[in-house]
Amino acid sequence: MTNELGRYLKQLRGRESLRDVSHRINGKLSFSYIGDLEKGINRRGNPINPSPDTLRILANAYHADYWRLMELAGYTPSVDKLTVEPTSDGATISATPKWKTSNEPLDVYGEITAGPPTFADEHIIGQTIIPDDLIDKYGRDNLFALQVDGDSMSKVIAPGFIAVFAKDCEVENGDICAVLVDGENATLKRFKETSKAVILEPESFNPIYKPLIFPKNIDQDFRILGKYVFATSLLK
User: Fold this and answer.
1) How far is CA 84 from CA 33, 57, 93, 94, 96, in A?
2) What is the pTM of this model?
3) 102 classed as catalytic
4) Could you give the CA distance from residue 161 to residue 146 in angstroms, rounded to a whole number?
5) Annotated catalytic, 152?
6) Residue 120: is its pLDDT beyond 70?
């Protein structure tokens, strides 16, 4: 069944063929995968959950709003109901996201930098809500949330957004992770490993950021805290 994101992607493509779109983006996404995204399922009939990177490629290809695609994919939920209640000193505003959420919010801990690594204080700065299916997939106790500070990963997640991570989750080349450096500095980067080094790569519209490289022949103190699995703008 075609989902809302799939219908929107098909609308953006218009009369252009799937092959032409794939060719235009230099094969970053295959024409068959783009077609599967429009259908909302893969060839095995399973739902497709495109990554933020995939949505960025499509947004650039169609000159579309990246955050609109993120919203339709469930990363940044849109508001279904907005309530404003007057108070003695102003007003209280509450909103209900369109996706189904857990009854229990997830604690958000001190900011994680998406620029030069800075210490992420382990204190709760608020709470956020996440989809139930995320909890079903990873387990609530295996999830934690941090607020992103800095713009070295701005192609993937905007500064100020809440990044949700899964602990005890296998990390593969290309995954985005929260990494603890030198036992005290936490940073958000894309993880890559070669035969000679571990590389933490930025993905920013700002060209000033450079990869952090950890040669394997030198002892390096870094530890992966969790794999990035979700982003939201909701903090309460």
Assistant:
1) 42, 37, 5, 7, 12
2) 0.57
3) no
4) 9
5) yes
6) no
